[in-house]
Design a protein that fits this description.
Blueprint: E1 9-13, H1 20-40, E2 47-51, H2 57-63, E3 70-73, H3 90-95, E4 100-103, H4 106-111, H5 116-129, E5 132-137, H6 141-145, H7 149-160, H8 166-169, E6 173-176, H9 190-208, H10 210-215, E7 218-221, H11 229-233, E8 240-243, H12 250-262
Helix pairs in contact: 1-2, 1-12, 7-9
The structure holds 1,3-dihydroxyacetonephosphate (13P).
1,3-dihydroxyacetonephosphate binds at residues 13, 105, 177, 182-183, 221-224, 242-246.
Length: 264
């Protein structure tokens, strides 16, 4: 019904994989494949983003030059500069040509102390610098089993967007990533993905109204692959995907891009 109002985005989250040299090789494989998908879809594939490690960002920005592929980071600090040893700020990313940044991935929440509050601060910092945040939300297995998925995801959304204006909210991408489906080979069913993405859109409607909520891209992530992508992205409220493992293989990633482009 409203799918045409928003952009389908397929984003690869390379996580802690690929040195700069290997980054260059994978991008060189991807570029002609993505171009071919676009040519089969009257010139436009869905938006394609690769979120690479910090050390590969500059290489990736250079390597995608002249193609339609965009580059994203996997985290960003919420201050613009200062005494934060080891951190990278949004203006630093922006200046080297990065366009997207993943915020609040469950691995950062689980292993690096990320909270809903820091997700909110990072989202604001990214928006201020002109980066597009990909904000990750999703429930743990025991939370789903305890039937509190709705509460968990609603809370994450509400807090991530606290104090963010509707014009800024419209620029944000959300990735629904059930934690039990990440790297486990256990994908959410298309119905589970649709239900959660619809829930997210309902929460956004409550916060910002229908026209803003209908324009926001809500991706699914968690063991999405060349085989299951088409069924997932065909769902009304699933606007593409955030892909881990399968984004490290050019052919598999391209199949997912193809599924999202056909499904547009
Ligand atoms: P996998 O696709 O490897 O399950 O990872 C999903 C993910 O965490 C993307 O951010």
């Amino acid at each position: 019904m409203k799918k045409e109002l928003r952009k389908a985005i397929i984003a690869g989250n390379w996580k802690m994989n690929k040195t700069p040299v290997k980054t260059k090789t994978l991008i060189a494989e991807l570029i002609p494949l993505v171009k071919e998908v676009a040519s089969q879809n009257s010139g436009s594939a869905c938006e394609v983003v690769i979120c690479v490690p910090f050390t590969s960002l500059a290489t990736a920005v250079e390597a995608v030059y002249g193609s339609s592929i965009k580059v994203g980071a996997q985290n960003v600090h919420f201050e613009a500069s200062g005494a934060f040893t080891g951190e990278i700020s949004a203006p630093m990313l922006k200046e080297i040509g990065v366009e997207y940044v993943i915020i609040g991935h469950s691995e950062r929440r689980q292993y690096f102390g990320e909270t809903d509050e820091t997700v909110n601060k990072r989202t604001k910092a990214a928006l201020t610098a002109g980066l597009i945040p990909i904000v990750c939300v999703g429930e743990l297995l025991w939370e789903r089993e305890a039937d509190i998925t709705e509460e968990v995801v609603s809370r994450q959304i509400k807090l991530a967007f606290a104090g963010i204006s509707s014009s800024d909210a419209a620029k944000v991408v959300i990735a629904y990533e059930p934690v039990w489906a990440i790297g486990t080979g256990k994908t959410a069913t298309a119905e589970q993905a649709q239900d959660a993405c619809k829930l997210i859109r309902d929460r956004l409607t409550a916060l910002y109204g229908k026209s803003v909520a209908d324009s926001i891209t809500v991706q699914y992530g968690g063991s999405m692959n060349a085989v299951n992508a088409a069924e997932l992205v065909a769902k009304e409220d699933v606007d593409g995907g955030l892909i881990g493992g399968a984004s490290l293989k050019a052919e598999d990633f391209t199949e997912i891009i193809k599924a999202a482009s056909d499904g547009q």
